[in-house]
Design brief:
This protein has nine helices and no strands. The chain has helices at about 5-35, 40-45, 50-60, 60-80, 95-110, 110-125, 130-150, 160-190, 190-220. It starts with a helix and ends with a helix.
Length: about 220
Amino acid sequence: MTSKPAQKSSRGARSARTRDRILEAATHLIARRGYSGTTISALSKASGVLPATIYWHFENKEGLLAAVVERAANEWLLGAPGALVPAGAHVDPSEVEARNQEGFRNLFEKEAQFYRVLLLVSLERRDAGGPPLAAVKRVRERVRSFMADQIEERLELDDPALRRDVAWRLAGIAMVALDGNFLAHQIDGGGEATLGMRFEQIRWTIGLAKDAIEAEAREARPAP
Protein backbone atom coordinates (compact mmCIF):
# COMPACT_ATOMS: atom_id res chain seq x y z
CA MET A 1 0.00 0.00 0.00
CA THR A 2 1.38 3.41 -0.99
CA SER A 3 1.84 5.83 1.91
CA LYS A 4 0.28 9.31 1.88
CA PRO A 5 3.66 11.12 1.77
CA ALA A 6 4.65 9.02 -1.25
CA GLN A 7 1.34 9.83 -2.94
CA LYS A 8 1.85 13.55 -2.33
CA SER A 9 5.39 13.32 -3.66
CA SER A 10 4.17 11.55 -6.78
CA ARG A 11 1.45 14.15 -7.35
CA GLY A 12 3.97 16.93 -6.86
CA ALA A 13 6.33 15.40 -9.41
CA ARG A 14 3.50 15.03 -11.94
CA SER A 15 2.44 18.61 -11.35
CA ALA A 16 6.02 19.85 -11.88
CA ARG A 17 6.31 17.86 -15.12
CA THR A 18 3.00 19.29 -16.36
CA ARG A 19 4.13 22.81 -15.53
CA ASP A 20 7.40 22.29 -17.39
CA ARG A 21 5.54 20.91 -20.41
CA ILE A 22 3.33 24.00 -20.50
CA LEU A 23 6.33 26.33 -20.22
CA GLU A 24 8.26 24.48 -22.91
CA ALA A 25 5.34 24.68 -25.35
CA ALA A 26 4.70 28.33 -24.48
CA THR A 27 8.34 29.24 -25.09
CA HIS A 28 8.28 27.67 -28.56
CA LEU A 29 4.97 29.32 -29.47
CA ILE A 30 5.94 32.80 -28.24
CA ALA A 31 9.28 32.62 -30.06
CA ARG A 32 7.39 31.86 -33.32
CA ARG A 33 4.16 33.80 -32.93
CA GLY A 34 4.84 36.47 -30.34
CA TYR A 35 2.83 36.99 -27.17
CA SER A 36 -0.35 38.21 -28.87
CA GLY A 37 -0.37 35.27 -31.27
CA THR A 38 0.00 32.69 -28.51
CA THR A 39 -3.50 31.79 -27.37
CA ILE A 40 -4.42 29.48 -24.51
CA SER A 41 -6.21 27.28 -27.05
CA ALA A 42 -3.04 26.95 -29.16
CA LEU A 43 -0.97 26.33 -26.04
CA SER A 44 -3.38 23.63 -24.87
CA LYS A 45 -3.08 21.88 -28.22
CA ALA A 46 0.74 22.18 -28.30
CA SER A 47 1.27 21.00 -24.73
CA GLY A 48 -1.53 18.43 -24.52
CA VAL A 49 -2.74 20.10 -21.32
CA LEU A 50 -6.32 21.25 -20.75
CA PRO A 51 -6.91 25.03 -20.60
CA ALA A 52 -8.25 24.70 -17.04
CA THR A 53 -4.98 23.08 -15.96
CA ILE A 54 -2.97 25.88 -17.59
CA TYR A 55 -4.99 28.47 -15.67
CA TRP A 56 -4.57 26.45 -12.46
CA HIS A 57 -0.79 26.58 -12.78
CA PHE A 58 -0.45 30.21 -13.91
CA GLU A 59 -3.74 31.99 -13.09
CA ASN A 60 -3.72 33.96 -16.35
CA LYS A 61 -1.83 34.53 -19.59
CA GLU A 62 0.31 37.30 -18.08
CA GLY A 63 1.40 35.03 -15.23
CA LEU A 64 2.32 32.36 -17.78
CA LEU A 65 4.37 34.80 -19.84
CA ALA A 66 6.28 36.04 -16.79
CA ALA A 67 7.09 32.41 -15.88
CA VAL A 68 8.29 31.71 -19.44
CA VAL A 69 10.71 34.65 -19.30
CA GLU A 70 12.09 33.69 -15.89
CA ARG A 71 12.52 30.01 -16.87
CA ALA A 72 14.32 30.83 -20.11
CA ALA A 73 16.65 33.23 -18.32
CA ASN A 74 17.45 30.73 -15.56
CA GLU A 75 18.38 28.09 -18.12
CA TRP A 76 20.62 30.48 -20.04
CA LEU A 77 22.34 31.85 -16.93
CA LEU A 78 23.02 28.33 -15.67
CA GLY A 79 24.70 27.39 -18.93
CA ALA A 80 26.51 30.66 -19.66
CA PRO A 81 29.24 30.44 -16.97
CA GLY A 82 30.59 27.27 -18.53
CA ALA A 83 31.58 29.27 -21.58
CA LEU A 84 33.34 31.97 -19.58
CA VAL A 85 36.61 32.09 -17.72
CA PRO A 86 36.02 31.73 -13.95
CA ALA A 87 36.40 34.94 -11.96
CA GLY A 88 39.94 35.37 -10.66
CA ALA A 89 41.38 32.64 -12.88
CA HIS A 90 44.74 33.22 -14.56
CA VAL A 91 44.62 31.74 -18.04
CA ASP A 92 46.12 32.34 -21.44
CA PRO A 93 44.46 35.25 -23.32
CA SER A 94 43.72 32.92 -26.22
CA GLU A 95 41.57 30.77 -23.90
CA VAL A 96 39.68 33.85 -22.75
CA GLU A 97 39.04 34.70 -26.39
CA ALA A 98 37.90 31.15 -27.21
CA ARG A 99 35.49 31.01 -24.29
CA ASN A 100 34.06 34.44 -25.05
CA GLN A 101 33.35 33.30 -28.60
CA GLU A 102 31.72 30.13 -27.29
CA GLY A 103 29.44 32.14 -25.01
CA PHE A 104 28.55 34.47 -27.87
CA ARG A 105 27.77 31.56 -30.22
CA ASN A 106 25.67 29.88 -27.52
CA LEU A 107 23.50 32.98 -27.10
CA PHE A 108 23.05 33.59 -30.83
CA GLU A 109 22.42 29.96 -31.83
CA LYS A 110 21.69 27.44 -29.07
CA GLU A 111 19.77 29.91 -26.89
CA ALA A 112 18.39 32.08 -29.68
CA GLN A 113 14.85 31.15 -28.67
CA PHE A 114 15.43 32.66 -25.21
CA TYR A 115 16.69 35.91 -26.70
CA ARG A 116 13.82 36.12 -29.21
CA VAL A 117 11.26 35.70 -26.44
CA LEU A 118 12.96 38.37 -24.34
CA LEU A 119 12.98 40.91 -27.16
CA LEU A 120 9.47 40.09 -28.39
CA VAL A 121 8.01 40.52 -24.92
CA SER A 122 9.93 43.77 -24.45
CA LEU A 123 8.44 45.21 -27.64
CA GLU A 124 4.90 43.86 -27.34
CA ARG A 125 4.45 44.69 -23.65
CA ARG A 126 6.33 48.01 -23.57
CA ASP A 127 3.15 50.08 -23.16
CA ALA A 128 0.99 47.52 -21.36
CA GLY A 129 3.48 46.85 -18.55
CA GLY A 130 2.39 44.24 -15.99
CA PRO A 131 4.17 41.08 -14.75
CA PRO A 132 5.62 40.05 -18.14
CA LEU A 133 7.47 43.33 -18.68
CA ALA A 134 8.56 43.38 -15.03
CA ALA A 135 9.99 39.87 -15.51
CA VAL A 136 11.89 40.99 -18.63
CA LYS A 137 13.38 43.93 -16.73
CA ARG A 138 14.45 41.66 -13.85
CA VAL A 139 16.06 39.25 -16.29
CA ARG A 140 17.93 41.98 -18.14
CA GLU A 141 19.17 43.38 -14.84
CA ARG A 142 20.45 39.94 -13.85
CA VAL A 143 22.18 39.47 -17.20
CA ARG A 144 23.79 42.90 -16.97
CA SER A 145 24.98 42.19 -13.42
CA PHE A 146 26.38 38.83 -14.56
CA MET A 147 28.27 40.50 -17.42
CA ALA A 148 29.54 43.28 -15.15
CA ASP A 149 30.98 40.70 -12.73
CA GLN A 150 32.91 39.10 -15.59
CA ILE A 151 34.16 42.45 -16.93
CA GLU A 152 35.15 43.76 -13.51
CA GLU A 153 37.60 40.90 -12.98
CA ARG A 154 39.55 41.99 -16.05
CA LEU A 155 39.77 45.75 -15.50
CA GLU A 156 43.12 47.15 -14.45
CA LEU A 157 41.81 49.82 -12.09
CA ASP A 158 42.93 50.03 -8.45
CA ASP A 159 39.86 51.79 -7.03
CA PRO A 160 37.14 49.12 -6.36
CA ALA A 161 34.26 51.60 -6.64
CA LEU A 162 35.61 52.99 -9.90
CA ARG A 163 36.22 49.49 -11.27
CA ARG A 164 32.62 48.51 -10.52
CA ASP A 165 31.23 51.67 -12.07
CA VAL A 166 33.23 51.16 -15.27
CA ALA A 167 32.24 47.47 -15.42
CA TRP A 168 28.56 48.32 -14.99
CA ARG A 169 28.65 50.91 -17.75
CA LEU A 170 30.51 48.57 -20.09
CA ALA A 171 27.98 45.80 -19.40
CA GLY A 172 25.21 48.18 -20.46
CA ILE A 173 27.02 48.97 -23.71
CA ALA A 174 27.65 45.25 -24.28
CA MET A 175 23.93 44.52 -23.94
CA VAL A 176 23.06 47.22 -26.48
CA ALA A 177 25.65 45.76 -28.88
CA LEU A 178 24.27 42.25 -28.34
CA ASP A 179 20.67 43.38 -28.89
CA GLY A 180 21.50 45.11 -32.17
CA ASN A 181 23.65 42.33 -33.54
CA PHE A 182 21.16 39.65 -32.53
CA LEU A 183 18.35 41.44 -34.37
CA ALA A 184 20.56 41.88 -37.43
CA HIS A 185 21.52 38.20 -37.30
CA GLN A 186 17.86 37.14 -37.11
CA ILE A 187 16.97 39.37 -40.06
CA ASP A 188 20.00 38.74 -42.27
CA GLY A 189 20.82 35.18 -41.26
CA GLY A 190 24.27 33.98 -42.25
CA GLY A 191 26.65 31.20 -41.37
CA GLU A 192 29.76 30.87 -39.27
CA ALA A 193 31.58 33.68 -41.10
CA THR A 194 28.75 36.13 -40.36
CA LEU A 195 28.65 35.06 -36.73
CA GLY A 196 32.39 35.63 -36.44
CA MET A 197 32.01 39.08 -37.97
CA ARG A 198 29.33 40.01 -35.45
CA PHE A 199 31.52 38.83 -32.59
CA GLU A 200 34.33 41.07 -33.87
CA GLN A 201 31.93 44.03 -34.13
CA ILE A 202 30.82 43.61 -30.54
CA ARG A 203 34.39 43.16 -29.28
CA TRP A 204 35.51 46.25 -31.20
CA THR A 205 32.61 48.33 -29.82
CA ILE A 206 33.26 47.26 -26.23
CA GLY A 207 37.01 47.85 -26.64
CA LEU A 208 36.46 51.43 -27.79
CA ALA A 209 33.94 52.04 -25.02
CA LYS A 210 36.33 50.58 -22.43
CA ASP A 211 39.16 52.90 -23.46
CA ALA A 212 36.87 55.95 -23.46
CA ILE A 213 35.20 55.18 -20.11
CA GLU A 214 38.48 54.38 -18.36
CA ALA A 215 40.05 57.60 -19.67
CA GLU A 216 37.03 59.59 -18.54
CA ALA A 217 37.11 57.94 -15.11
CA ARG A 218 40.80 58.70 -14.64
CA GLU A 219 40.32 62.35 -15.63
CA ALA A 220 37.45 62.71 -13.19
CA ARG A 221 39.51 61.48 -10.23
CA PRO A 222 40.91 64.21 -7.99
CA ALA A 223 44.66 64.71 -8.13
CA PRO A 224 46.59 63.04 -5.25
